[in-house]
């Protein structure tokens, strides 16, 4: 009996050591971090999208976070707060996992020597490449999530839709592929997305590691969760504010072919000029209030859950095996 147990026992340390590998641990922890952070701020994420795609002259969702959330709750209940979050989590888990995992890969290549510290510029560049990598893998899910988020919202031109009328994620994806141009339809708006994601992710990683180093100086073996949350919130707010206009462009292009929405942009420059001429500079920042309200708790919970999960997997290592 004991011999059988001894034969099986080596497998467990091998699995533990595999999970403890830095890149795999970062990949798994990134997936957990993405799901946690997006679920926490799902109502504000949806409200931001509704603000972004509302064209000039419409006031169904006014620039008031409280009124927008109240309208959403009144018309759709708690399901309205979570509309599109399932798709978002399906997207964000691999997106966040690839982002954190690839960032650690790029860092390895960029280190001046094994374990060497990176300059802020190098972190910015590595984060940018990580953002491009992650968005390239998961973009079709993002565009479907955007459409799910607005399907039940009562925009005047579209009219209210009941939940029963709304097709599911895969049905929307199949319809877009069939009726809107194949694979290209599933990647509509990816140019402004990449243009915004690369600097956003780069700024996020660069700012977080700088602020984290300030809040938790070297030698602090047990930094408080509050300090980690603060570092994550600050990094997210800085990155989002600097790159927000690209996010607006991404959303507008994702619904560019939807009837009743009134957008027919031919290029990024055409979109920018039309938005600024019709809606002013403020048009490039529509939805930034709920976005800033969500980004601090979102990134704070993302970084905290990432570090806790990563540290858990790293702790599984059995060095004597």
Short description:
With 321 residues, the protein is mainly α. It contains 13 helices and no strands. The protein has one domain: Mitochondrial carrier domain (Mitochondrial carrier fold), CATH 1.50.40.10.
Describe this entry's structure for a reader.
- With 321 residues, the protein is mainly alpha-helical.
- It has one domain (13-314): Mitochondrial carrier fold (Alpha/alpha barrel).
- It contains 13 helices and no strands.
- It has helices spanning 2-8, 11-19, 22-40, 42-53, 65-82, 85-110, 120-151, 169-179, 183-186, 190-215, 225-254, 268-279, 288-314.
- The protein is globular and about 60 Å long.
- The chain starts with a helix and ends in a 7-residue tail after the last helix.
- It comes from Xylona heveae (strain CBS 132557 / TC161).
- GO terms for molecular function: metal ion binding.
- This is Mitochondrial thiamine pyrophosphate carrier 1.
- It is found in: Mitochondrion inner membrane.
- Mitochondrial transporter that mediates uptake of thiamine pyrophosphate (ThPP) into mitochondria.
